[in-house]
Amino acid sequence: MNLQVEQVDKDLVHNFKVIGEIDIYTAPKLKEHLATLELVEGIEVELDLSEVNYMDSTGLGIFVGFYKEVKAYNGKLVIKGLNQRLYRLFEITGLSEIMEIEQSKGGEDNASV
Q1: Tally of CB atoms within 10 A around 24
Q2: Whether the Cβ atoms of residue 75 and residue 95 lie closer than 8 Å to each other
Q3: How many helices and strands, by DSSP H and E, does the chain display?
Q4: Which helix (H) or strand (E) holds 20?
């Protein structure tokens, strides 16, 4: 499966829409896209994962690393659009207690973790 990352900045918030699967094969592409963002003091970033249908631990590692980078600049990172299964992955790892996460509205999606 391919991974697409689209960046659309609104006002002072950097928005990334991630589409597809995040795994050991596609995670480097996601990391590349996030690395292109110039980190500045107080940066605000939103990652929309509403169209991610699979993620493994490699994807979690990318988000943890990026979260640390953003926080080092006193920035804010919001991960939004998680379906129930992807949210559960963040929850069982304890990341939902650390990161700001907004679940998608609606019922159980068929995404895999």
Answers
A1: 11
A2: no
A3: 3, 5
A4: strand 13-22
